[in-house]
Design a protein that fits this description.
The structure holds two protein chains of two kinds. By secondary structure, chain A is mainly beta. Chain A has no helices and eleven strands. In chain A, β4 and β5 form a beta hairpin. The chains are: A mainly beta, B mainly beta.
Amino acid sequence: KAGVTQTPRYLIKTRGQQVTLSCSPISGHRSVSWYQQTPGQGLQFLFEYFSETQRNKGNFPGRFSGRQFSNSRSEMNVSTLELGDSALYLCASSLVGSRNTEAFFGQGTRLTVV
Amino acid sequence: AQTVTQSQPEMSVQEAETVTLSCTYDTSESDYYLFWYKQPPSRQMILVIRQEAYKQQNATENRFSVNFQKAAKSFSLKISDSQLGDAAMYFCAYPQETSGSRLTFGEGTQLTVNP
């Protein structure tokens, strides 16, 4: 079956702009999580959505937001982009998002803010 | 909150040899899970192996095995008969105690496999 698909793969934006990233989970998976990966901070949890509701949220400013649609596809939005938002954004899906289940990751969206 | 530490930023191993990657964590929980994920140059994270804390037996998946020492809060990954395709960044991860999915990752260890 198809894996987790993230679009676009690469993105270049200017400071102050906003951006929307998309994630299509594996069919049947209801939990979608987002992570930011940078050389300095490593992998950091952004938020998790389950059945269209935000279930967990990491320690990121309100400029970072997300949503999940009824087909489990998820989007994350970053407004008023800053240079420090340049990162690899990874999406992960799992069946129900419990602690013992495997999270399947997409290949990420590389965001560069100039 | 739980923390995960990987003290080896880089490791290298000769093809066909064995290498061990270290991970320590801090938690007050008695029952939990631990994962090792691999991130190759394609950037896609792949689950390598998982361990359940209440199981005394160390998990094994083909050439990959763990040395889980609960009292010491240590969770190392051993790769036997290393192959060129094992070259990647390896992350130790702890799923947080929460209703849902929230992984805390270590800093990662970049593994190089030399032919």
